[in-house]
Amino acid sequence: MWGDVRTSVSKPTIVRSLEFLGLLLCLGVVSAVASGLRSWSTGPGVVATVVAVAPYAGVWLVLALRLPHGDAPWTALVPGAVVYGAGTEIIHGVIAYAITPWALAKQGTYGALGLAAALLVGLFLISRLVVGSAVLNATLWERGRRRA
Residues 26, 56, 68, 65: is their CA dihedral positive or negative? Predict the structure, then answer.
């Protein structure tokens, strides 16, 4: 989809790896702040849920720029970043309001295995979202190049 990205990928270094991990940590910070506001009060929690889409999308855009993307400009990565930001908030809502209460209700029955299953479902959904955002970017970029 993105052409032969193997030739355009720079060699990994410790500094680039730490930069990448730092950006991933930023996603966790955004989640923590939004979760804190949601638990503090309903009004600010709803606002935080809507507003958190922008930081998620922004951090994901910066992360996507560091990943192989062929000769696509940064603007070609914006649709996937927006989908990632919105999808992450939807997944957070599903986890907070559906999966977590279900897992806590089943804790007596399944114990730690129920919580582990809920965590794995959340990680699976996020991983599908990451791949889906990259596929969306690549598909839109290739379609645009064919038209031109």
Answer: negative
Angstrom distance (rounded) from CA 81 to CA 26: 15
Q: Which residue has the tokens 């970043």?
A: 81
Give the pTM.
Answer: 0.79
Domain count, the chain: 1
In which domain, by residue range, is 86 found?
5-147
pLDDT digits (tens, 9 = 90+) for 57-113: 999 999 888 888 878 889 999 999 999 999 998 988 888 778 778 777 777 777 777
Give how far Cα 61 sits from Cα of 54, 92, 138, Å.
10, 19, 14
Q: Which residue has the tokens 């993307």?
A: 69
Distances (CA, A) of 70 to 17, 51, 80, 90, 116: 20, 31, 15, 29, 37
